[in-house]
Design brief:
Layout lengths: L2 H30 L10 E7 L4 H13 L9 H8 L1 E6 L10 H10 L20 H7 L3 E9 L3 H4 L11 H10 L4 E5 L15 H9 L16 H7 L2 E4 L2 H6 L5 E5 L8 H7 L10 H12 L6 E7 L1 H7 L3 H25 L2 E6 L3 E2 L3 E2 L32 H7 L5 H9 L8 H11 L6 H8 L21 H14 L1 E2 L5 E2 L3 E6 L2 H4 L4 E4 H11 L9
Parallel strand pairs: 1-7, 1-8, 2-14, 3-4, 3-7, 4-6, 5-6
Antiparallel strand pairs: 2-13, 8-13, 9-12, 10-11
Length: 535
Amino acid sequence: MDHGHATSLGYRNIYLLVFSLFLFLFISQQTFAKPAAKTTVKNVILLIGDGMGPQQYALAMSYAQLAPDAPIRKLNLEKLMSQGEVGLMMTYPKGALVVDSAASATQLATGHYAGSEMIGLDYKGNPQATILELARDAGKSTGLVSDTRITHATPAAFAAHQPHRSMEDKIATDLINNNVDVMLSAGLQSFLPQGVRDKKSNVYANLRQQIPAHIKLVSKRKDDRNLLNEAENKGYHLVFDRESMFMAPESRKLLGLFDSARMPDGIRESQTENEKSRKHPTLLEMTSKALDRLSQNEKGFFLMIEAGQIDWAAHSSDVGTMLHQMLQFDKTIGYTMAWARKNGDTLLVLTADHETGSFGFSYSSFETPKAKNLEGKAFTGIKYKPKYNFGTPKIIDMIYQQKKSYTEMVSEFDALPERQQTAASLMNIVNKNSEFKISLSEAEEILKPVDGGFYVNDFKAFYVYDNRYRQNRLGITLSRHQNVVWGTGTHTATPVPVVAFGPEAITGQFNGIHHSTAVAMMMRKALGLTISSPH
């Protein structure tokens, strides 16, 4: 045998074998390769903590991690941040440094820069389609849930188009005409005809029969339109209390208006959430009902959920109420996170429209700690005494134990007969409802008239709400005992976190620093909706 020829044949067979193996692997890879990752989802749930900047995150997490009596040690907020993707969001509107809720929500809803206090308009004043409207036009269901009122700036910006956020009567009309499938909040005052102001009228009598007694009949409308009738004519099922909400059919559009102007605050919600006779649903309960209803649509849905009273507490320099608002919102965060994980094909986005109050814990020279002995060798023969008061974790327990919001305390004071509206009365009301006490002289200072209704001489231009200045005074009076500082009674330009939870192919884009208009476009893209460039 020709050994050279045999060797040649052997090499040739090896080459053929290797070639065949590579060819098989190539074909197999093409045939059995994983499908491309999905870049769209069926559902988007947008959670907005109004006024919830990094400082508010820190308040809630400090309570969970440090307060001796805290019942939990890790918030759903932390779990979402660790399991999702985290970025930062700039919030400024066109031509300004600081944003209000209307412009910020408009930018998140439309992807277009807005002007201050505009609803659903770009900065030039042109109506722009919102993500809710585009989702509706694509055959998806839509929903708005808020613990403020449905005509307030944040929910309004997703389904209304008006020159100014104060035009709540017209916003209410827009909401009804936009055919939002589920709307749950307060705000009945913008749906009732002005004739309801006359308690002797037939209008009042008829509406009093329709609406439960726990809701005061008030109208903010300037006409005689009854939007409740108009909503029913458009196919809405109306509910006004918690029990009726849960019993509402899932086959119809749902409008729930649970109070005239606002839902109960976080402290009241914490105190009453286990009461079966409670009339007002919690934010979590409204969210649960909305998801049950919207998920009936096989094409999916868009749902915006607002925890709006975080902002209101911060405007009032009320750290106790703000903590409760954050903890109540955390329950909703946990529920929606579990829902998204169970149901899949859902993008969950958590963010804020801005930060409010420039809040923070801080160290001070007030009541510095007393010297004490330490076991460490470095302190042999000497005592440990910090120069400043850095605050003790017990303070956060005391903050949580607040029994009424500052707004409720002031309202209780205002309800007294005029002759009883004294500094002593205010002191008693505050000290009964707060672990931090005020003195008689401090109560006198809180009640002292101030030119223009502003809170303090320092930074008085940043305390713009006359109806809150006594709350601001109270908050800042107590702040040294709480190791708390407030920089303003309004908003700041602090970048706010944005957290995305869902398919990795989608959530990764939320990393980094973005403007709110860019976040809006990411959500649109995730739903497979038409995208136009922001202006």
